[in-house]
């Protein structure tokens, strides 16, 4: 125990950053919260593996990090393909000299529909991406986490207030994000006792990303050749009344940097005794 306390103290005072010497896989890090996580982690000394389905954006984020003195590797691909998950973990371990310390399961999007009109495809795509994919990544990376080398290991799974409270029009997303909470607790209980692995969930509220921008802005993702529009219809966004964000005590949405900062805080030794928890990052909403 004394050695572990000393190790944490050394990390907190380490001039090269809170995550110096650690290797982190961050999914969905070609843009938005994931890209900010990649940059913040690299700034704290981590070797970052940038995973995104958009190869151009993944390469751009990695190149930016490397140009600014960080250390990043882009490994683009489709997380819904099992062979890509194997490739991602393999390349991350090679990049890390045989080690992986952190996984941030952040990748995802919304594919909304009311329950009685939701298709099997809408359900399956979202449940697989937000629920099954994090499980498969963690399972594939198990040999690098179930180790006793004295180095920290932790997993941060990204959830949502939709997974905690539910949300109309998002039964698929709510279901998957609620499942992530249970998965996280299971990881913490299985891998914490013998290996010291920490696992936590961060549930975001209204964060400014393409998922909360006006739908009319035209952002989309493509699944099996079908373009899926992202965002919230302007009419719905305006339905909140004359006081913007009245249901958020801070009266504003969070930024991608603020969201990523919460991920960094939980992944860092500053949170070394936090495990199995769901941290709400909502500006006070739904408290």
From TrEMBL:
GO terms for molecular function: 3-oxoacyl-[acyl-carrier-protein] reductase (NADPH) activity. Residues 22-194 form the Ketoreductase domain. Coiled coil: none annotated. Its EC number is 1.1.1.100. It catalyses: a (3R)-hydroxyacyl-[ACP] + NADP(+) = a 3-oxoacyl-[ACP] + NADPH + H(+). Keywords: NADP, Oxidoreductase. SMART domains: PKS_KR. It is an enzyme of class 1 (oxidoreductase). The keyword NADP applies. Belongs to the short-chain dehydrogenases/reductases (SDR) family. PANTHER family: 3-OXOACYL-(ACYL-CARRIER-PROTEIN) REDUCTASE, 3-OXOACYL-[ACYL-CARRIER-PROTEIN] REDUCTASE FABG. This is 3-oxoacyl-[acyl-carrier-protein] reductase. It comes from Cercophora newfieldiana.
